[in-house]
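[User] At your convenience, examine this fold.
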Amino acid sequence: MPSFDDMTTDDLRAACEEMRTEIDRRDAEAEARASVVAAVEGYAALRGVSVLEAWRALAPEGVQVPDDPEPAPVPDAPAYVRPTGAHDSYKVGDRVTFQGRVYEAAINAIVWSPLAYPQAWKEVR
């Protein structure tokens, strides 16, 4: 960047005007982004869906929305891990986090995920 001493007063005024224009553009973009996020979050809350599901529902055709990141397990419900056999199968009352939801085993010796065998699980959160 040139030294201010090397710039004329008109050059300084022009540079200030460019900066003001850029600041205004960035402020308008931030305000628009905040409005969109608030609208999507409001839609998600009203529909009872995740924010990502709301983005998918509201995005214009052709706009790519990323896949869900793996949600963090809930403290009292560790992430579902497919058992390798009867010795580590889930028992009635065991809780797991699976795809962002918490499920409780409704039967003993369950080795299938809530998606693969929904009858064996009860969604609790």
In short: The chain has two domains: 4-58, 70-125. The chain has a mean pLDDT of 88. The longest helix spans residues 9-47. The beta strands are 95-98, 101-105, 121-123.
